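Journal club prep — side note

Before the paper discussion, L.F. wants everyone to see what a predicted structure for a comparable chain looks like in token form. Sequence:
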Amino acid sequence: MTTVHQSSQQGKRPLRADSERTVRTILEAAERVFAANPAATMEQVAQAAGVARTTVHRRFATREALVEELTGWAARRFAEAVESAHTENTPPLVALYQVTANVLRVKTDWWFAMSRTSDGAHPEAARVHAEVRDDCERLFLRAREAGVLRPDADLDWTRRVYYALIHEAAAEGASGGGDAEALATRVVDTLLRGCGSPAAPVIA
């Protein structure tokens, strides 16, 4: 996943530390404001960030530019969350739990922005999601080879179910329904064991 993070920095002049802090403050405020009201104005974002409206406009010419940068910011955090789980060289079950917890933290903290990263309209976000999908498929292949998943598990179906569980857990987390570790445990447990009783009949 390192290529995603590196490529996102190409062509961008590094910000000074104080400017970077200001941009982060504005983006965090924008996430809170837009999550509560997607139609919120730049002035409302400035108020939430505790800065002048001119400060926001100096860094983001339009509301659309702010939302675009917010989407890219969330995509980069998403890429970093997957990278930091070291899914290629960690035992599959450990990697599955760790990447789930890491991703849920990002999806919970950046719920509005992450909701915009999966539609393919933002080039950087689309690139991140494609690479994350590749990482997920490799992890599930390793999990199947290690016996964490059944030998006959359909990996594409498993990945889609996993994504759906992640989405539901992130929605619960964003509404205050639990921390990332607890939600990750629920996701992984549901994915690997389901909700049925061990004694339940199996349909042939």
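L.F.'s comment for the group: The CA atoms of residues 144 and 150 lie 6 Å apart. Keep this in mind when we get to the figures.
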